[in-house]
Amino acid sequence: MKNRTFRAGKLLVIVFLLISVVFPLASLVLNIQMEDVSKVISAPQFIPMLFNSLLATSIATALSVVIAFGLAWCVNRTNIRYKQVFSILFTIPMLIPSISHGMGLVLLLGDNGLITNFLHINIGLYGYLGIIIGSILYSFPVAFLMLTDIFKYEDYTTYEAAQVLGLSKKQQFFTITLPNMKGALISVIFATFTMIFTDYGVPLVVGGKIMTLPVYMYREVIGLLDFSKGAIIGVILLIPAFIAFFMDLKNESSGNSSTITRSFQIQKNKKRDIISYFICILTVFLVSLPILAFVILSFVKQYPIDMSFSLANIKEAFQLGVGMYLKNSLAIALVTSLVGICVIYFTAYITARAKRSFTNAALHLIAMVSLAIPGVVLGLCYVIFFEGSLLYGTIAILILVNTIHFFASPYLMAYNSLKKFNENLEDISACMGISKLKMLFDVYIPCTRATIIEMFSYLFVNCMVTISAVSFLANFRNMPLALLIPQFDSQSLIEATAFISVIILLVNSILKLAVYAVKRYAQTLR
């Protein structure tokens, strides 16, 4: 009877993923009108937009990965102190929306920016320069986390052998470090490229006359309600995402046969550590500047005319509905996190712990495909597929789209954790008459509490900062707080926009601190 309940649950998950992933994606492709394809591609602005997107994304990706690699090396390959603190501070940009990074640059380096007015130097922010700088701020923390994880799994015995052979540090880097990290580094590059290529938040604010494909798609759908042209651009935006997806699958299938026999031993080197301190402190300072600008502008009377202290802008922001939209964001983030954990964890349990079958392999593939669908494309898929349904226009569809948008990463967390258990546990439990659901609730969930907490944190934070997936689906009543940023920006309410970014940062920081406290408490219960 209990195994029937498990099979029923599995069937519900399959139906859920078909309705929320497969069918909306298919509807996007089917909605394309062939005559519009030639119109979009032959349009005089298409090639320049594609060139703009590829050029800005390529430069920003290269710089972002290099910066992230350098910071990951400083944290993992030197003897500097406060490594964990630096790692946390490097990831602060992840706690605010991408569009806020663009706004932060405008506040600092725009025509009337704080630094521009103080130094009397205008760097010409609007255009390629602004898009590249904003994209680096937005993407390097993700690349840093991925690279830090890779550094942890390097085997030191290879480096010992190289030292015996007399290879210099430079030779060791190019003959051991880079070749060992080649596959993973390619995945990081593609993941970073996809993030930047599909983002419209940064170029919307600082792009100036430089139009990118995501911004064009956003304006066509939101401004002109042209879903066919939006679908064509959406399919184009899917191309690098699916390339990145299949690269990850290839790396995963090829695997890494090496095992760590000895953890990395960091030798003493004062000069290296001093340089690393300088790089880390400089990065934290630069990352903190936009946040400091948000805080300053939240409490000034009128920027840049009257910089005296005032709470008038905060009062105005709440009069414009910030309080209501904050409640919407908290409700969406909380429900998405709770519902998402249940669905995602159970899906991972099915694919990681059940015997290999076609349906389990298909479930795993669909769960992973969500990683390759950019938020702006997924939002358009939902508009086309769910329009006219009971879900459309409700807060429920925002919860659903966020669950799918951020499905893959927490799914992989749970999947990898569940895969670590002995593969014979299910056979043993079946011989003893223990049901799969009992194993799930009595063994797996208690043993993977830390992973579940991290899944909750990931879903909550990303729901608070996202604007891409929900921008096409939200209306006046259910709109999350982050969507007020482009709205206020278009109305030149700079101070209110800065205040919203501060609120989102505070909420996510409080959540992160709470998660840290819960994890510490959970460790004491062991």
From TrEMBL:
Transmembrane regions: 12-30, 50-73, 85-110, 125-147, 184-207, 227-247, 274-300, 330-350, 362-385, 391-412, 456-476, 496-518
InterPro entries to which the protein is assigned, alphabetical: MetI-like (IPR000515), MetI-like_sf (IPR035906)
Main localisation: membrane
Superkingdom classification of source: Bacteria
GO biological process, one term: transmembrane transport
A Pfam cross-reference name: BPD_transp_1
Membrane disposition: Multi-pass membrane protein
Keywords of the record: Membrane, Transmembrane, Transmembrane helix, Transport
ABC transmembrane type-1 domain boundaries: 50-248, 326-512
GO cellular component: plasma membrane
PROSITE patterns according to UniProt: ABC_TM1
Subcellular localization(s) per the UniProt record: Cell membrane; Membrane
Family according to the record: Belongs to the binding-protein-dependent transport system permease family.
Protein name (database record): Putative 2-aminoethylphosphonate ABC transporter, permease protein
Species this protein is from: Amedibacillus dolichus DSM 3991
Lineage: Bacteria, Bacillati, Bacillota, Erysipelotrichia, Erysipelotrichales
